[in-house]
């Protein structure tokens, strides 16, 4: 299964552990400088984050994260196997967490959250003026609160540490730069 | 070892696999809605990213990442056990990758790259007008190229997918917003 990847070569791969949430692998590789070594990495599902603007206000979700404590984020989460696209996943997560759906959607590209650890991508979407229907948070989101904030306050929340999710922070600032001064 | 964490309760923890680069754990938990379940997560070192402006130009590193292919990033990487602080780690990574050191340093806060998978933080720093000394990239960075780009080009590179590292993208746009129109 030798596979060339740019200046790297992969010689073999073994799973180290596998659970429904993550799989860790060890690859035997040749590094860019020519020496042999190993590369341990983790497979997890891609994620989505949505910047939803309702009458100019940004929807932000606040919840207590098991690993990191209380945190603001943009609505979103892991893609399900049943999601046919990142856009469908983004629509699903937005309505589950906030009750909003539809609006005018824009593809905002994708980011790599921890490119040295996992190839997982975070797909970014925005939607303008979605309509309210009904929220249906998942069991682990029982404490989720939806806030409407100005883009200025969201940028301030990145700077002061309330909004610390990296992909959410990047999308908030992308929307703020788009809006202009 | 029962531990309350906001609306969560941790009952026990077992390691699933451990390597020098990562450790995966399974925690037995009570979820916010009151049901029992498990939470699998990964421990990896904190990281640092540095926005270094030299005569108004931003230093960007380009390399082929084993997991994600060619990518622009801000200089940075994982903290070493020997790093006494994220600032020291940022200074070390900047000089290793680009040859630049010192300058006027600013704390830009920290982000959580994948808050559902790992508590690891990415600590953000910026430095204005560091001085060139001598680069010393690590073996896996033998293909690393340093570019100097305008902040506008760096923001454009986030939008067009060249600069896809989430924490780097967030810091680039934070610096662009600081600069103003």
Overall pLDDT metric of chain A: 95
CATH topology of the largest domain in chain A: Nucleoside Triphosphate Pyrophosphohydrolase
Number of domains of chain A: 2
Strand content of chain A: 35-45%
Number of helices of chain A: 3
Q: Tally the beta strands of chain A.
A: 13
Q: How do the helices and strands follow one another from N- to C-terminus of chain A?
A: EEEEEEEEHEEEEEHH
**Unreliable stretches of chain A:** none
Structural class of the secondary structure composition of chain A?
alpha+beta
Biggest interface, residues from each chain: A-B, 71 and 71 residues
Distance between the termini of chain A: 53 Å
Q: What's the CATH H-level superfamily name of the largest domain in chain A?
A: Nucleoside Triphosphate Pyrophosphohydrolase
How would you name the oligomeric state of the polypeptide chains in this document?
A: homodimer
Class of the largest domain in chain A in CATH?
Alpha Beta
Instruction: Characterize the overall form of chain A.
Output: elongated
Q: How would you explain this protein's 3D organization?
A:
- 2 copies of one chain form a homodimer.
- The first copy, chain A, is an alpha+beta fold and 181 residues long.
- Chain A has 2 domains: 41 residues; 133 residues, Alpha-Beta Complex (Nucleoside Triphosphate Pyrophosphohydrolase).
- In chain A, 20% of the residues lie in helices and 45% in strands.
- In chain A, strands 5, 6, 7, 8, 10, 11 and 13 form a 7-stranded mixed β-sheet that branches. Chain A has a 4-stranded antiparallel β-sheet with strand order 1-2-3-4, with no helix packed on it. Chain A has a two-stranded antiparallel ribbon with strand order 9-12.
- In chain A, a hairpin with a 2-residue loop joins β1 and β2.
- The longest helix of chain A has 14 residues.
- Chain A is elongated.
- At the A-B interface, β2, β3, β4, β7 and β10 of A face β2, β3, β4, β7 and β10 of B.
